[in-house]
Each structure stands twice: as C-alpha cells, then as structure tokens.
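Could you help me review a protein record that somebody else here produced? Do not assume that whoever made the record got everything right. The record follows directly below this note.
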Amino acid sequence: MATSQNHLGPANGPLRMSGDKLRRIMQGLPLFLLLGWTTKAFTPDLNAKSGLMARDLEMRLEIVSSGAALWKQLLLPIFTIACLMFIIRSRNLLRAYMNVLLPIMLFGAFLTVSYFWSDHPSDTMRRAIRQLLLFTSVAGAVVIARSQNRFVGYLQVFSIFLLIYEAAFLLMPWISFDVFNKFTGLHSSKNEFGGIAGAFLLVSVAIYSYYAETAAERRTALLCGVGWTVLLILSGSKTPMGFVVLLAPLMLFSQHLLRYVSMGVIFLWLMIIVFIPMALIGLGEAPIDFYRSILPEEALTGRTGIWFHLLADMKKDWMFGTAYGAYWGVGDVPEALDIQYSYYQLLHTAHSGFVDLCMELGVVPTVFWLLMLLLFLIFTRNSSDPLSSVIIAYALLHNCLETSFVHGLHFVWVIMVMAMMNILYSQAQRPNLDAVFRAIREQRRVDPSGAGAQPG
C-alpha cells in the first residue's frame, strides 16, 4: 500500500504553520478513531438511569446505561476541530471536504430538525449534534487520509492495533467471556464484538486481494484475517459469520456483486415497510397480522417478538416517528429496577436498524433515506472501490438483524459512514477506479510478485 504524500502547498487559509510541520503533527489524525474506540467513546449514547421499555418478551433483554466521563465526551468535538484546522488551510482540501460532507449532512440536518416534534427534545438535540460531529470528523479523516494516499493504510493499522487489543482480553477470561463461554472482548455482548470482527475480517480480505502491493503487506493482511477469524469463531456470533461467508466470495469474484447485494437489501426493506403493507391495507387486512402468520414470535432468536411489539407501538407515530433519539434510553427507571444486581434486564434496541429507523424517524423519512442510499449506490458505481463496497454491503446486512444505523457511535455505523465518505471523495476526484483495479489484477497475472500501483 503506497504511502507517498501529496504536497499540500503553502498555507493560504487562517493557519500559517508550514505544511511540512503541520503534516508531521496531523498526518496520523485519522488514527484518532482507534483511540476513541478503545476508550469506549463509541458506546451508545444513553443517559444513566434512563428507562428502557420494560416489557415481558420472554427472553434475556439487556440494560444499558452510559454516563461517559467529560474527557471522553470531548474527544469527538476535539477531533472534529482538529480536522477542520487541518483542512481549512488549503482551498483544495476544503473544496473536497465540502463535496464529501454535504450529502450526508442533509441527513444530519433532518435529525436535528426532529427536535421540534420530539417528546424528549434535549435528548434528541444532544444525540443529533453527536451525529453531526461524527459526519464532520469522519469526512475530515477521509479527506486528510486520501490527500496523503493513506486511507487503506490507516484502516489496516487500525485493524492491527484493535486486533492486538481485543486478543489481549483472552488473557483475562473472567471479563472477556460471557456466561455462555462466548468471547466478547472489551464489549458488553458477543453480538457487539461479532459485528466488529466480521467487518475487519472482510477489510483484511479486501486489502489482501486488491490493495497489498508487497509480500509483507499481503502477509500482514493474511495474519489480520486469520486473527479476526479466530476471534469471530470464539465469539459464536452467527449473524456476522453468515454475512462474511456470503460476502467474501462475492468480493473475490466481482466487486460489482457487492453493490447488487446492497441494492437487494434496500429493495427487500422497501417491500417490507411500504409495498406489502400498502397491498394488505388495500385488501382490508392488518399488516402485523400477516407478518405474525408467516413469522412466529420465537423466530430469529426472538427478534420477531420484539419487532411485533414495536410495530404495535409505532401506530401513533408511524409517519415521522418519535424523533431521533426519543424512543430508547429516555425517561426514568422504575425504582424497583434501579438496583445494581437486578434480575431484570431491559431492551435498548429493536435488533434491526431498519425497524429502529422507522420507530425514531418514521416510515416516510426511512423510505426517503433508503431511496437516497439506492441512488447513491447507482450514481457512484464508477467511483466505488472493493473495500468501501464490502463495508456498505456488510453494514446493510448487519442492520437487518442488529442495530447500528444512527445508533450512537456504533462502530459498524462509523465504518459505514467512512466507506460512504471514501466513495464520495473518489466521486469528487473523478478517477476511473474500475480501470485502476482491473489494471492491478492484470498486472498481477503477469508479475508473480504482485507489485502494482495503489489506487487513489
């Protein structure tokens, strides 16, 4: 993976520090995401002692409350400011940054506007601002990394350090394995860790197949892939395992198939959310009764029971939802449950990012968001790369059965935003990435060493 740096030119913005000195200080800025993750700055944004839908669903539910220390809460704003300080010194970087940022900031603007119909406006505003900071900082990280031709390299370094960090918890089994002897790393559940391990396993496969130029880089990617595979198996999280088994061969066969998988997931949920309910209502039938007839409540390890309950609860706010961040983690915990070692554990997500979008943003904005994502996949098809494409496909599949979309700073959401920003950056620079990757693979057929030019 090439690490050559493009000269940023003389400072022509508010900052007058020389480019070389500033670059030495700031060129590793995207790796701040690693620090933020390992310090648990990316945990779900829930109030301490907040009431979380105490319902009897005959399953093990989970209570989550996080009151992050002030210094952790300041990490994301500081990172955002640092990115802006680096970018505004160069008109070219600032132009690329705005091209990358604007489309997804429109989505963030809607999250903020939902403040006006929220039952918990302070929670909505605080959580919406956090998403705006996420979009701004991730866009900055992508623009800075790509301007130095180091995006893939930074992601690989991230993977190596996080793999070592997670694997170190194998030495502390009393805190890294749950009651069912499943590996959770530093996370609260095997599903949370499994989502991360699956994402980085696919990243390793993509780097090995498309980006590694030298034998050492391929060995590093292979070792990362093996390490994440071992930890994923130890976690016993079946959902990401299945998605990796599906997506890895597709990525190796043709990166274009990944876009079709993403579009297929969007079409599926448009059918579930819009077209099937409209047809049933036209026939005089209740959609929830239809879904109950084909999916028993114990299906999908109990997820359908949660969904049926939430669909019934969504009737009063189906069009625009309860407002962003105003459904989970709001209100007060009943005194009977506010004890340290309670027998009760409470639900904090729908275990489907699409259902949660409907609950908080409503059906109309969710459908609009899915259509905009579909158009994004269509219009940027010549700017997409294998790494970003597989991350987006994985995130969409993951959110069918887990919740990460706009869910605090969940890592699958963070890495999906990063992939979208990377594609937007490529679209703004207008490279022909299809030709670039085709040339790399053709050169490998001729050159056994596999040396090739690193894209963008």
